[in-house]
Design brief:
heterodimer; A: 359 residues; alpha+beta; Rossmann fold; OB fold (Dihydrolipoamide Acetyltransferase, E2P); six-stranded mixed β-sheet; five-stranded antiparallel β-sheet; 9 helices; 37% strand; B: 268 residues; mainly alpha; MetI-like fold; 11 helices; 74% helix; binds adenosine-5'-diphosphate; binds magnesium ion
């Protein structure tokens, strides 16, 4: 396993130390991998990218690119390229000149530049004959994205950094562009760090990802690992639609634990790895793992009343009430039997889908 | 963004003509008087000739005045444009200690009456080797002009996105390449406007210059002022016309490069 980029114990403060943007951040990215950093706005994502790119210096910690420490190497000498949040295509240069910019700065021969720029424009599916002479203001949002990508790609950097470049597009185009982006990155076996606050975007793109909040990396792993095995309530909450409850462990037998949520309301869960240490636990149950029925389907089932049924097209979101204090969010496909407000139902789930959060 | 401009009404047209006429009165009077061959200044003029223009351009004293004004204006431009631009750029781009105080200090010369600046510099340098040199006049002008260009560039930079410079660095541009490929082309109009402003404000300046020049370095506006005060010589009208023409041409250039929008932004 070859490491393309690594940060070790990066700390960065702003405003005379009052704002801690990054707190001891260590990540690594393997060659050919798409690594995403997912976190809410203000969590320090852009700052980390800027430090890797060389636009900002860390207060402490080191950055390694291809195994070499580059912490004090200026941005223009690092083998890294960034696709900026607002793209920052040079408004006074046409598409060709924008893409050629990096090569020109590196004093590459004119003919070679022309060849590589055209090659790269084809890679991002822009026909040079049509687009080369256009200026950024003559391009659509999607075309600008491609040019910004081409401008970074053409330099064949060790890693390409993406700072939420799709966030300004409308949803439909964004969905399309992210799939395309992944295909391009994978086809040419590129290494990328992609920063976003959008969970779906992170899931679509990532080979591996990390969650960042308030300047701290909370957990890293594959999208599935993070989704299925969150190690904190922040992550459980942040990924997907999650019901989180406090509970007390009543009984443990084999791999099964019985957890009391409230007087008389007990649920059964599986734990696979280390058993919980304290009696007080947090349990998480994803909204889509719950099935509503009028007859018991699984062993775990409780009676409830439908409080809300929200139709959103391909799915229906229910809010069901177990009692005055306990409500659950349930998401079901818009298929088969649907429920209405006031209906008495049973909520069912599998013990495997109850996640104990170690906290 | 773009407001729709309504079709002008007859009333509005009429008002515009009237206001323009009002504003042009002094310019027209001066211009007509400058064409009068009479030996003293009067209005309305008695005839039309280029007599005093010939006089102006063949008289050593006035020629010198014109040249001196150009020297001082050029020197002022060379000093104040880089200072004003760099100060504004630093203020916008970087965070540093005492930034607010820096900002206030930069604006002080702009709001200090020029009379005081002139007297102060006279007292400070009146007995030194710098007395009466182009340099000291240009320094006086540069105080005001740096301050003004600083304010002007603040307005220009408020629309400027420093991300372009970061993108350039990211793509491998060193400081010089970044400046010539990105900063300069994107801020070109503002830079040109700053140069023109520096030049014209110095060229027509009289209040500070009057304290600081000698008969050798006397500038056109100072000559004009003394001539009007002591002899009311008709060539003064020609000098005035030349000052006005300089100002108008340069102002037209400024609006061409900078647009009128930017002028309204800095309160002109
Ligand atoms: N140049 C700066 N000066 C002061 N504070 C900053 C600066 N850049 C970022 N911050 C602060 O650091 C924190 C992280 O910012 P950022 O990295 O931009 O977050 P994200 O990209 O995740 O939204 C925020 O609290 C932000 O206000
Ligand atoms: Mg950001």
């Amino acid at each position: 396993m070859e490491i393309a980029v690594e940060t070790r114990n990066i700390t960065k403060r702003f405003e005379k130390g009052r704002v801690v943007a990054l707190d001891n951040v260590s990540i690594y990215v393997k060659k050919g991998e798409i690594f995403t950093l997912l976190g809410p706005s203000g969590s320090g994502k852009s700052t980390l990218l800027r430090i890797i790119d060389g636009l900002e210096e860390p207060d402490s910690g080191d950055v390694f690119i291809d195994g070499k420490c580059v912490t004090h190497v200026p941005a223009h000498k690092r083998d890294v390229c960034m696709v900026f949040q607002r793209l920052a295509l040079f408004p006074h240069k046409n598409v060709f000149e924008n893409v050629a910019f990096g090569l020109k700065m590196h004093k590459i021969d004119k003919n070679e530049i022309k060849k590589r720029v055209e090659e790269t424009l084809w890679k991002v599916e822009l026909n040079p004959e049509i687009y080369a002479l256009r200026f950024p203001h003559q391009l659509s949002g999607g075309e600008m994205q491609r040019v910004a990508l081409a401008r970074a790609l053409v330099l064949r950097p060790a890693v390409i950094l993406f700072d939420e470049p799709l966030s300004s597009l409308d949803k439909r185009l964004r969905d399309k562009m992210r799939v395309e982006l992944k295909q391009i990155l994978k086809r040419f076996n590129l290494t990328a760090i992609y920063v976003t606050h959008d969970q779906e975007e992170a899931f679509v793109l990532s080979d591996r990802m990390a969650i960042i909040n308030k300047g701290k990396i909370l957990q890293e792993g594959t999208p599935r690992e993070l989704y299925e095995k969150p190690q904190s309530s922040f992550i459980a909450n942040f990924l997907g639609d999650t019901n989180i409850f406090k509970g007390v462990i009543k009984q443990m037998k084999g791999n099964l634990v019985i957890i009391e949520l409230q007087d008389g309301i007990c649920i059964t869960a599986n734990y696979t790895e280390t058993p919980p240490i304290s009696r007080d636990v947090l349990v998480s149950l994803k909204a889509e793992k719950i099935v509503l029925s009028d007859r018991p389907l699984f062993e775990n089932h409780l009676e409830a009343t439908v409080k809300e049924a929200i139709f959103v097209g391909e799915k229906i979101i229910y809010v069901v009430e177990l009692n005055k204090e306990l409500t659950l969010k349930v998401i079901e496909k818009n298929f088969g039997k649907t429920w209405r407000k006031g209906d008495r139902v049973l909520v069912n789930w599998l013990p495997d889908d109850i996640i104990l959060i170690p906290e | 963004m773009g407001k729709t401009i309504a079709k002008s009404s007859i009333f509005l047209n009429f008002a515009c003509v009237l206001i323009s006429a009002f504003i042009l009165i002094p310019v027209v009077i001066i211009f007509l008087t400058s064409l009068d061959p009479a030996k003293y200044i009067r209005f309305p003029p008695s005839g039309f000739s280029l007599l005093w223009y010939e006089y102006f351009f063949s008289n050593k004293v006035w020629q010198n005045g014109l040249l001196n004004s150009v020297y001082v204006a050029v020197l002022n431009t060379i000093i104040s444009v880089p200072c004003g631009i760099l100060a504004a750029y630093a203020y916008r781009k970087y965070t540093f200690k005492l930034k607010n105080i820096f900002n206030t200090i930069m604006i002080i010369p702009y709001v200090t009456p020029s009379l005081l600046v002139g007297i102060a510099l006279l007292m400070a340098f009146g007995r030194t080797i710098l007395r009466g040199t182009y340099f000291i006049v240009a320094i006086a002008h540069a105080l005001w002009s740096t301050s003004f260009i600083y304010i002007l560039m603040q307005a220009a930079l408020s629309n400027y996105d420093f991300t372009y410079e970061e993108a350039a660095k990211d793509l491998g541009a060193n400081l010089f390449q970044m400046f010539s490929e990105v900063t300069l082309p994107l801020l070109k109009s503002a830079f040109i406007a700053a140069i023109l402003f520096a030049f014209i404000s110095s060229f027509g300046e009289v209040t500070m210059a009057i304290f600081l020049v000698t008969s050798k370095t006397v500038t056109l506006p100072v000559l004009l002022w003394t001539s009007l005060k002591y002899e009311l010589h008709p060539v003064a009208t020609v000098a005035s016309v030349i000052c006005i023409i300089f100002a108008i041409v340069i102002f037209m250039l400024i609006t061409k490069f900078f647009g009128t929008g930017m002028l309204s932004k800095i309160g002109m």
